[in-house]
Amino acid sequence: MKKKLWLNALSSHTVKQLCGSLMLLFFYASAHSQLYSDTSILKPLPRITGWADNEHYIVQRYNREQKKDISFLENSKTGAEKEYVITNTQLVAKAVAIDGDIFVVAGKDKKRITNTDAEEKLPLLSPDKKWIAFLRNNDLFAIELATSKEIRFTNDGTETILNGYASWVYYEEILGR
User: Fold this and answer.
1) Cβ(142)–Cβ(14) below 8 Å
2) Which of 52, 106, 159, 162 is most open to solvent, judged by the fewest CB atoms within 10 Å of its CB?
3) Where are the beta strands (DSSP E) in 38-174?
4) What is the Cα–Cα distance from 14 to 6, expressed in whole angstroms?
5) Bridging pattern class, strands 47-51 and 56-63
6) Nearest CA among 32, 87, 131, 70 for reference residue 123
C-alpha cells in the first residue's frame, strides 16, 4: 500500500491558500527587513577630521549601538585602521576669529595672534599646534606661533579671486574645514 504524501491529501484550494499565505509571509518578512534593517543608503558617511601624521588620518564613524562617534586611525596607503582615542590635551587649543582677528583659545584662556585693520577669516590650527593658517583679503596666510612670523602664500586675492574658498564646490564636499 502506497503512503500518501500529506500534500497530496490536501485539496487544491487548500494548497493554493497555503502557498498564498507562505508568499505573503515571505514578502512581509522581506519588506519588513528592508524597512527596519540598516541598508547602505541609510548609513551615515564617515568624517575625516584630520591628519595624525604623514601616513595616517583620523576618521569618525557613528556607532548606532553605542550611540556615539568613534574615532579610528586609518592608514592612507593600506586602509588598515585601529580605534583612536582622542585625549584631552589634543582637544585643548583651537584657533578662532573674533571681531576679525585670530585668537588661540585653550579652555578659558584666550591669546590674540593678529591685530590688523583687515578681517582675518577661517583660522585653522595645524595638527602639531605650531602654525595657524587663515585668510585675509582673500589671500592665504600662515603664522608660526613660536615666533609670530607671518607667511603670505598668495597675493592675487580680489573680489573675484577667492583664495582659500571653494566657491565652485558644495561646502559639504570639502573636508577639514
Assistant:
1) no
2) 159
3) 47-51, 56-63, 68-75, 81-83, 93-98, 101-106, 109-112, 120-125, 131-136, 139-144, 149-152
4) 12
5) antiparallel
6) 131
User: For residue 134, with 0-12 CB atoms within 10 Å meaning exposed, 13-18 middle and 19 or more buried, which class applies?
Assistant: buried
Buried/exposed code over 166-175 (b: 16+ C-beta within 10 A; e: otherwise)? eeeeeeeeee
How many alpha carbons fall within 13 Å on the CB side of residue 71?
Answer: 13
In angstroms, the CA 126 to CA 113 distance is: 14
Query: How much is the pLDDT for 28?
Result: 57
- What tens digit of pLDDT does each residue of 35-81 get? 455 555 666 777 787 777 888 888 888 888 888 888 888 998 898 99
CA distance 112 to 121: 14
The C-alpha cell at 167 is 566657491
pLDDT digits 0-9 by tens, 119-145: 999 999 887 788 999 999 999 999 999
Per-domain boundaries in the chain:
9-36, 44-86, 89-168
